[in-house]
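Chapter summary example.
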Amino acid sequence: MLKISIDRAKAGMILAQDVINEAGIVVVPAGKELTDSLISKLSRMNIDVVYIEGEKALPPKEVVFSELEKRFQKINDNPTLLVKQALKEHLEEMYK
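The structure predicted for these 96 residues follows.
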């Protein structure tokens, strides 16, 4: 299952999870094939992300974390280090 922004959704993709609006109502059930019309409607309903079937090949976790460390190696100010920590936490979630 992949989480993608509605802007990246394409006709033909299959929803892996129900799409739920702000009121908690299922507006499109899991298993439904996306169409251009449906994607437009979801966007107008302020649906930001959808979960679609499939898997994304991620680079090895070690490579990603090594690159993150390289990019932040010269940084020592607190606000930027907080960004680094947030990125690490996000990446950890991606690799679960």
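To summarize the output: Residues 61-94 form one domain.
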